[in-house]
Specification:
With 136 residues, the chain is mostly beta strands. The protein has 1 helix and 10 strands, in the order ββββββαββββ. Strands 2, 3, 5, 6, 9 and 10 form a 6-stranded mixed sheet that branches. Strand 5 and strand 6 form a beta hairpin. The longest helix is centred in the middle third of the chain and has 4 residues.
Length: 136
């Protein structure tokens, strides 16, 4: 889980370190904002040029999972979610994606990168959220 606040001068934001058991999936949560300070919405990514992608690499830099086109309606919430999954603060999260167990099938380091590319009409720059962790 992590809070993500995009700023124009920074394009990659680090989430907290994570640990996951070998052979299990993991859900990643974040509160994401565009460079202009507004919370991300589904409409920011469903037009021309908009997308959200996920890539997972191991310590050698080898891809162990890639999904170039996450389904925006399934991973972005138009209102902040404040359920029991979110423990960072009382504000909530607006992005959630479960990386499948296949990405964590062997023990070792993992680098998880979510790339957010707002639609071209939005005018906000692309940004990324990364998590580093260990499969035990």
């Amino acid at each position: 889980m992590g809070i993500l606040a995009a700023q124009a001068a920074i394009d990659v934001y680090k989430g907290p370190k994570f640990s996951v058991r070998q052979g299990t999936g993991r859900r990643f949560l974040a509160r994401a904002e565009l460079a202009d300070g507004t919370d991300i919405l589904q409409s920011h990514f469903d037009g021309t040029g908009g997308s959200i992608a996920c890539a997972v690499r191991n310590a050698a830099g080898t891809s162990v999972y890639a999904n170039a086109t996450l389904t925006v309606a399934s991973v972005v919430y138009n209102t902040l979610q404040t359920d029991a999954l979110w423990t960072e603060d009382s504000d909530g999260y607006n992005f959630a994606f479960s990386v499948p167990a296949s990405a964590f099938s062997t023990v070792g380091y993992r680098h998880v990168l979510f790339t957010f590319t707002p639609e071209t009409a939005n005018g906000n720059p692309a940004f990324a959220l990364e998590f580093e962790g260990t499969v035990t």
